[in-house]
Design a protein that fits this description.
411 residues, 2,3-Dihydroxybiphenyl 1,2-Dioxygenase, domain 1, five-stranded mixed sheet, three-stranded mixed sheet, 44% helix, globular, binds 2-oxoadipic acid, binds nickel (II) ion
Length: 411
């Protein structure tokens, strides 16, 4: 008997990303348009700009997506970590969106491959936020206790799915004939639930934050956007606008410059309201709408060193970052490398190490741009104890330091 055919981690990850993409396209039509326009922009860009593929092959970039999910607490985040480990996606970086200019009551990490070969094969990543229930500026003790009780009763994932995921993660592979069902079950765990929503609970949480209601007002989690990558985001913006899809008015992140593209630029559009069911106090069910999902697109540039990042933060603090950009960044990769501002493979300016992570200010902006309005936190001090170490301890895993990974990739 020949041994069973096995699929390895990256093949499972590619199928997981493709499965989520198919599900999302079926549910959010504007996403399908975005993917189509992104593919055209990328093909045109590579045809016109020899060397554009140094930021990633057209094959990689065309398949590339990131998604975002939101969970209620550390136990749920630990389950997410177990599931994603089967796809070779590990927690990298810590993001505290409570300290953004327009604060959001979550802390977050990103699950992604960490090895350059794995990233080249399929870089699928998921920005994963956790509701900051320990922060008393958002959650009074009574409400916090009720939220945590609610979260303690729900199960985002079938225990059998998680058990399977742990085995696959340990083996680094899965029998091909079993893979389809495993990936389908993982994808289905992130579908938008059609279960009736408890209206008074949802409304109570909405008064704290629309994000609190989206996370803890319902019985499950869902992928709330899936983001294709483009090589020219300004061109994408023009073509989407020409097709009548209203994008938010700004591109988040660094301005367009003539010099090397750095970090991450992103823009988004609001999804249409989707039908849902609400249950009132008396048990009666009525139909309503929720606007919880949206579209986003991103362009990635070179990863900055801590020194480069400090310059980025300083440039972005100016009223008009584009106007002062040249005071902080040189105009060539050679100078970027020589000044130790960005990572290049083997130090060669023709081989940028692409930024694989997220930006807290942009992430908060992406959250914010898709909310009609949101409550401000109450005054008071934050004694929640949230930081990268706390999060790592709470989920029982290392949270990888992005700079260490870029350093390694550049060696
Ligand atoms: C996550 C927003 C952050 C990004 O690309 O910065 C994000 C969310 O809305 O849940 O996805
Ligand atoms: Ni995003």
């Amino acid at each position: 008997m020949s041994p069973a055919k096995r699929l390895v981690t990256w093949q499972l990850r590619a199928r997981f990303a493709a499965g989520l993409s198919a599900m999302y396209a079926a549910e959010v039509p504007a996403y399908a348009t975005l993917v189509e326009v992104s593919e055209q922009v990328n093909a045109d860009h590579v045809a016109r700009h020899p060397g554009a593929e140094r930021y990633g092959s057209l094959r990689r970039v065309t398949a590339e997506r990131h998604g975002a999910i939101r969970v209620g607490g550390p136990a749920e985040l630990a389950d997410v970590a177990d599931l994603f480990a089967a796809f070779g996606m590990l927690p990298v970086g810590y993001y505290d969106l409570r300290s953004a200019r327009s604060p959001i009551p979550v802390v977050a990490t990103a699950f992604r491959p960490i090895d350059p070969d794995e990233l080249a094969r399929n870089p699928f990543r998921v920005f994963t936020s956790m509701l900051a229930t320990r922060d008393p500026r958002y959650f009074r003790p009574g409400l916090r206790a009720r939220v945590e009780t609610f979260l303690g009763r729900r199960h985002l994932f079938d225990p059998a799915l998680l058990a399977r995921a742990r085995i696959i993660a340990a083996e680094g592979a899965c029998d091909a004939e079993e893979a389809e069902a495993f990936v389908a079950a993982a994808v289905a765990a992130f579908a938008l639930s059609r279960e009736p929503i408890n209206k008074s609970w949802y409304d109570e949480l909405s008064r704290v934050s629309a994000v609190a209601a989206d996370i803890a007002g319902v019985g499950s989690t869902h992928i709330n956007h899936l983001t294709p990558r483009v090589l020219d985001i300004d061109e994408l913006y023009r073509r989407m606008t020409a097709r009548g899809i209203a994008m938010i008015d700004a591109i988040q992140g660094p301005p367009r410059t003539d010099g090397p593209a750095v970090l991450l630029r992103q823009t988004s559009f609001r999804a249409l309201a989707e039908p849902c069911l609400f249950r009132d106090r008396g048990g009666a069910v009525s139909s309503g709408t929720l606007t919880v999902r949206f579209g986003e697109v991103e362009a990635r540039g070179v990863a900055l060193t801590p020194r480069g990042r400090a310059r980025y933060d300083a440039a972005m603090a100016a009223p008009d970052p584009a106007a002062v950009w040249g005071q902080y960044f040189p105009s060539t990769d050679e100078q970027m490398a020589a000044q130790g501002l960005a990572y290049y493979r083997g130090g060669a300016p023709s081989k940028p190490v692409v930024y694989e992570d997220f930006l807290p200010a942009s992430a908060a902006g992406i959250f914010r741009s898709n909310l009609d309005s949101d409550a401000r936190p109450a005054d008071g001090s934050d004694d929640s104890g949230y930081d990268a170490q706390w999060l790592a301890g709470a989920i029982g895993r290392d949270i990888h330091d992005p700079y260490a990974l870029y350093q390694e990739a550049s060696g």
